Amino acid sequence: MLALARAVTAAARSSSAGFGGGGSFHSPNGFGGSNGSEGVDSRAGGGVGAGLFANGGMASVTNSTLANNSTAGDDGFSGAGGVLQRLGTLNFRASIIAGNTSVNGADLNGTIVSQGYNLVQDTTGAAGFVSSDLTGMSPLLGSLADNGGATRTLAPQTGSPVVDAVQGLCTLDGTAGGQAVTSDERGFPRPSGAHCDMGAVERTPGALQFSATAYSVSETEQSAAITITRTGGSDGTVGAAVTLSDGTATAPSDYNNSPLAVIFADHEVNKIVNASIIQRWTHREQRDRQSGIDQPVRWRHHWRTNRSDPHHPGR
Length: 315
Fold this sequence. Notes:
elongated, mainly beta, 1 helix, single chain
């Protein structure tokens, strides 16, 4: 039995000689070509099932992504750039098959046993879907890139329909007794949001935090730099509004307490925002300032998050 879990098979290509999956090949006698699961540009086997060729026995694919693979020929079969199911049983759950190309069938050719919550972009020549599967749509994945972890991956982008899409149990077979799926291929925790995402990568925006709970700055300064870091993930664009509250300084006489917007781009993990200091001097304060005597200004801060994804808040 072949089992693929949390795997990415991308940019795999089958040549036109012989047959077999460029990403993986499964038959009752064994399976090979697994290097495609690490996202490398591989050539293996022949002209059918560039991502996965199931030719007998039982195979199960869970929380995996098979995308952007291609095959050059069909070798007498009705081939597929993504997955060809010819013989045996092929189980799919919470997986993505999309963007594959072939002269005969693009993403999936054959009949699968869907265990729910899969996305198949092109269903020409395919059967076996259930009501929770998504078909005929793009998963909106990024390019094959280093998104953290040991292998390159295809991360869901803002607005992707695969985010939070696994509404059922997040287990390998979807049952209460099944093995729990607690991390994605990179080792990042899942679920990150309300539900698990389809595919090998869980969209993980992370959390924002200040470098300190309070800041102190001299009144001679015109602004104070506040450092914000993003931890626990960096997928997608996230935003927040930073607001300041009084310490020994009071607003608006000592500092500008207007909210400060901060936006983190995809994979950006550090930001600095500047709080404006109000410089107002009495005669004595001006004399002390000229003498080098500065009075510190202190305040505390907090923020409220500004969710950036209208379809999946915070994702």
